Automatic annotation (TrEMBL):
Ranges where the PRELI/MSF1 domain occurs: 1-170
Any single GO CC term annotated in Swiss-Prot or TrEMBL for this entry: mitochondrial intermembrane space
PANTHER family attached to this UniProt entry: MSF1/PX19 RELATED
InterPro entries on file: PRELI/MSF1_dom (IPR006797), Slowmo/Ups (IPR037365)
Name of the molecule in the record: Protein slowmo-like protein
Amino acid sequence: MKIWTSEHVFSHPWETVVTAAWRKYPNPMNPAVVGIDVVDRRVENGILRTKRLLSTEWGLPLWAVRILGADQTCFALEHSAIDPSKKLMTSQSTNLTFCNELSIMEKLTYTPHPSIPGSTLLKQEAVITVHGVPLSSYFEEFISKTISVNANKGRLAMEWVIGKINCEVQELTKSVDGLTASAKRCISEDLKSSQYHFQRPGS
């Protein structure tokens, strides 16, 4: 068994990071995730609980393909929970493909950073267990390194989505400002027209 852990700080508010987590894929920064399907979603006691099926392409090396038998689209099941009152998001996933030979249980936790205002702390943990195949310890080490590389790609993917969200907010703000300015001009012109008719001699 191999345990991998990591922490990362996003210089963005918790609400923004959680929104980005939902919009993370598809993403050019981490093309390994090729599909996401929502299996179930419900609200329980103010907590949004979601079950999703993730489709990924591992890109296994030849020696791993010989051990597992094939390099194919792999599936994982993800359970997530968002508690807005506590500002806590958790996500737990486990692989479905190759589950007889390989078990990968990964957990992510997003919380506001305890000492950096306006920032979000991401904690990640993965437990890798290989059983019933040769070179199990070597395989576990390889999977651990792969998870580490993908975690870095995932953080870049998050920043990419956050950038898109910020651009959308700016465009929306400009649009609202434009509509507000247009409305003010119309109101001003209507007032001037009303005053003209009211003050016109003989009226």
